Amino acid sequence: MSDRTTDPGARSWIPVDDASDFPIQNLPYGAFLRDGEPRLGVAIGEHILDLRALAENGLLDGACDPALLTRPSLNPFLASGRAAWRAVRERLFDLLREGGDVGLRARDASAFFVARASATMDVPMQVGDYVDFYSSIEHATNLGKIFRPDGEALMPNWRWMPIGYHGRSGTIVIDGTPVRRPNGQRKAPDAAEPSFGPTRMLDIEVEVGFVTGPANAPGSPIPAGDAREHVFGLCIVNDWSARDIQAWEYVPLGPFLGKSFATTVSPWIVTLDALEPFRVAGPAQEPPPLDYLRVPGDWNYEVALDVELTTAAGASKRISQTNYRFMYWNIAQQLAHATVNGAVARPGDLFASGTISGPTRESLGSLIELTWRGRDPIELPDGEQRTFLDDGDTVAIHGRCEAQGARAIGFGSARGTIAG
Ligand code: MN
Predict the structure, then answer these.
(1) Which residues contact 400 (CB under 8 A, 6 or more apart)?
(2) Same domain for 80 and 199?
(3) Residue 228 is part of which domain span?
(4) Are the C-beta atoms of residues 408 and 270 closer than 8 Å to each other?
C-alpha cells in the first residue's frame, strides 16, 4: 500500500539536511522540558514541534481528541489506538509539508518550535512493565558458548519460543543519563566464594525496543496478526549489564540485579508507519514455529546500529556495526508470546529485543562477545585497551534506516557515561 507520508519526494518547508535522522517522513515522538515541565513533541530537522502548543491552538482538531497530546506523557495517546495515531501523523505531515496546510506556517514559529540541540529530553512514556527478550540467535549462541563452554550453546527451548524475562521499569532512563557502576556479588568461576563490590565486567547490550498501545483484556492474548494494532513504535535501547553479577546469580531464575540498575532509551519513538519502507524478511525459522507464533508478511526491520565508545581521555572508536534485521524472533511473535498466557500488555510498556548480534565479528552487540569475555581486548586509537567499561567511558548507540526508494530516517542516539 502506498503511503504519502513516506513518499521520498515529500519535503518540509522547514529546512532538513539530507543526513538528518528527522525528515518529514519520520515524525517520531518524544518528550522535552519546556518551562520545567515535560511536553510531547515531534522531531523535524533541527527542531522539536511542540504538540501541546499545536493542540491548544486548534491545529490538531479533527485528527484526535486534542487533550491526548497536552499531557506530559504519551500514554493517553498510546491508549487511543491506531486510527488516532494515523490521523495525527497525516495532520502533522500536512502542517509541515511544503505546499500543504498553511495553518502552522502562518503562525509565530517561536510558539511552536524549540531547538532540538538545546532541549532536555525525558522518557516520553510511563513504562509500566518492561520485558527484555533474547531473540538474536547469534547472541544466544555466543553467550551459551561463553557461559556454558561444555554444554549445548543453544538451549533446547530457544528455537521454539522467544525467550525473555521481566525487567525493571523504574530504572529505564533517557539518553545522556549517567550510569552508576553497580555493586553486587561477583564470583569468578575458579573462586571458592563470592565477594561484594563494584562490578568489574560492566557491559552494553545493543537492542531495539517496541512500545505498546491499547491493552488487551486480561486472559485475552494478542494474536501475532494483530501486532500492528498494539505496537506504536520502536526506540534504541542499551540494556547495561554487569556480567560478573549476572554469571553468579542467573541460575536458576535468570537475570536479576546484573541488569536492573540502568536501561537507557533513545529520546525518539519512531512509529511503525514511518518504518513501513524498511520492513524486511527475517531469517528462516527452523523448526517451523507453533501456530500462535506464525504471522504472514515481513516483520523484521532494517535498522543499522552503530556503537561508538569514547573514553574519558577522549579516545573514540566505533566498536560495532550491527543491524536489527538479524533478529530471529520478530516483534509480532514476541508480543504474541508475551501475552499468550493471558498476561496484559498496557499502553507504554516496553519490550526490548535482546542483544542484537550479527554473523560477523564486527556485528556483535556486547563487549562480552566483542572481547570474548576479556580474552581479546579492544585497541583504542591512543593505545589504551578495553575489555569491559571503565569509569568515564561513554557509549553511544545510533540507529538509522536506509532502503532503496525511501528517504532515510533515524532514531537519534542512546548514550550513557559510566560514573564510578
Ligand atoms: Mn538485554
Answers:
(1) 21, 303, 304, 306, 408, 409, 410, 411
(2) no
(3) 130-419
(4) no
Q: What residue spans of 182-226 are helical by DSSP H?
A: none
Rg (CA), the chain: 21
String of DSSP letters for 103-151 = TTTTS-GGGTEEESTTPPEE-SS--S-EEEE---HHHHHHHHHHH-TTS
Question: Do 75 and 154 share a domain, yes or no?
Answer: no
**Closest to 81 (Cα-Cα) out of 221, 219, 208, 226:** 226
Q: Residue 167 Cα, ligand 1 centroid: separation in angstroms? A: 9
> What residues flank ion ligand 1 with Cβ within 5 A?
132, 205, 239
Quick one: CA dihedral 397, 237, 393, 358, positive or negative? negative
Q: Ligand 1 centre and the CA of 53: distance in Å?
A: 37
Q: Same domain for 289 and 151? A: yes
CB 142 within 8 A of CB 355: no
**Locate cell 542467573: which residue?**
250
Tell me the CA–centroid distance for residue 352 and ligand 1, in Å: 7
| Cα 69 from Cα 96, distance rounded (Å) | 17
- 139 flagged as catalytic: yes
272 sits in which H/E element: helix 272-275
Distance 354 CA to ligand 1 centre (A): 4
Catalytic residue among 47, 139, 230, 398: 139
CATH code assigned at 59: 2.30.30.230
- CA of 351 from ligand 1 middle (Å) equals 10
Please tell me the distance from the alpha carbon of residue 354 to that of residue 12, in angstroms, as a whole number.
35
pLDDT tens-digit map of 37-60? 999 999 999 999 999 999 999 999
- List, for residues 167-222, the tens digit of each pLDDT value: 999 999 999 999 999 999 999 889 999 999 999 999 999 999 999 999 999 999 99
**Which of 221-224's residues contact partners 24+ apart within 8 Å by CB, and which partners?**
221/292, 221/336, 221/339, 221/340, 221/341, 221/342, 222/335, 222/336, 222/339, 222/345, 223/292, 223/336, 224/292, 224/293, 224/294, 224/295, 224/332, 224/333, 224/335, 224/336
